[in-house]
């Protein structure tokens, strides 16, 4: 029965796999007798197989050292597996530590940061301390007005008007705490009157509890 | 069940008979070593994988079912061990590459053992083409031409149909044949 070249090549491949049945073998041989092209293909496949076998043997046919039976018998596999996991995890932890050290070195060598200061979380906007530590510090950037004191002004009324505490006015103007009469002029901070520039209001600072805006 | 490892031998191994265990290991260690070597390429690693394969096999022996031949079952374990080893090695290589670039160290160029082995250009062409193949096609060629396994055995080990084994072998051989023809054409 005549077969096509394509079918012949398929049979050549099956022959290479040792799965060619006897009847197909005869059909193939009949075809190969008359077909130079397919004979050439069969030879090429045979050559490929031979070289592949030699190449693989050359590369990998190393003699192994016989296994130690006692090692295999005594080997606690779960311990080995555990060891395996530990070594893999150790590698991960090592890299993490390495990166942490690298990051620390990078940050600590930066000239803008003082040693020990954590660079992370530094705000671009200066935030005043929540604790009221001094008038000058707090109102240092605050515009002051030189206010001419009127006859009916009191420390309390000025404090309410300028929305600052009496203590602040006392401290800025170096007044005695129990002053009986106000001087002719007083320096008064205007921060609380210009809400767009003033620092955030502190409601948790006992000394500034008086500075709360009361409408009207 | 294959004739090399009959049921009674496996039963003795499960019972802890040292002589039986040694017989079983000696029967298969060369094949397992070659398979491991063809996967990982390094004799020391292959030796380790061979040992781990037998440790795992002896532990799992009570659960072995005779649906597969013992050899096929053992080779599946060796294949999985080899693949796992490769994954680990790739991970470590990536780690090494990352640390090298981090510290800007130049790694020393190592001469591949293959470079010193290959003299024949036809063998070189086949070897290069084999390494270009994806794992599915490469492994069937290795099992067929290095382990001398039958199509049925390869089908058992890889858990694929015999038709698929044929098809992959066909494709692999064709690729290798063409690489040889290209060499002749130069």
Question: Can you characterise this structure?
Answer:
The complex is a heterodimer of chains A (216) and B (186). By secondary structure, chain A is mostly helical. Chain A has helices at residues 5-16, 22-34, 36-60, 69-74, 77-108, 135-139, 155-162, 166-172; strands at residues 144-148, 185-189. Chain A has a two-stranded antiparallel ribbon. Chain A starts with a helix and ends in a 27-residue tail after the last strand. Chain B contains 9 helices and no strands. In chain B, helix 2 (18-40) packs across helix 3. The longest helix of chain B is centred in the middle third of the chain and has 34 residues, at 70-103. Mean pLDDT of chain B is 82; it is low at 104-111. Classes of the chains: A mainly alpha (216), B mainly alpha (186). At the A-B interface, helix 1, helix 3, helix 4 and helix 5 of A face helix 2, helix 3, helix 4, helix 6 and helix 7 of B.
CATH architecture type of the largest domain in chain B: Orthogonal Bundle
Distance between the termini of chain A: 113 Å
* Total DSSP E strands of chain B: 0
Kindly provide the radius of gyration of chain B, computed on alpha-carbon positions and rounded to a whole number of angstroms.
Answer: 19 Å
Any low-confidence stretches of chain B, pLDDT <50, length ≥5? 104-111
Average pLDDT over all residues of chain B = 82
Count of helical segments of chain A? 8
List the helices and strands and how they pair.
The complex is a heterodimer of chains A (216) and B (186).
Chain A: H1 5-16, H2 22-34, H3 36-60, H4 69-74, H5 77-108, H6 135-139, E1 144-148, H7 155-162, H8 166-172, E2 185-189
Antiparallel strand pairs in A: 1-2
Helix pairs in contact in A: 1-2, 1-3, 2-3
Chain B: H1 7-15, H2 18-40, H3 43-60, H4 70-103, H5 113-117, H6 121-132, H7 135-145, H8 151-158, H9 162-185
Helix pairs in contact in B: 1-2, 2-3, 2-4, 3-4, 4-8, 6-9, 7-9, 8-9
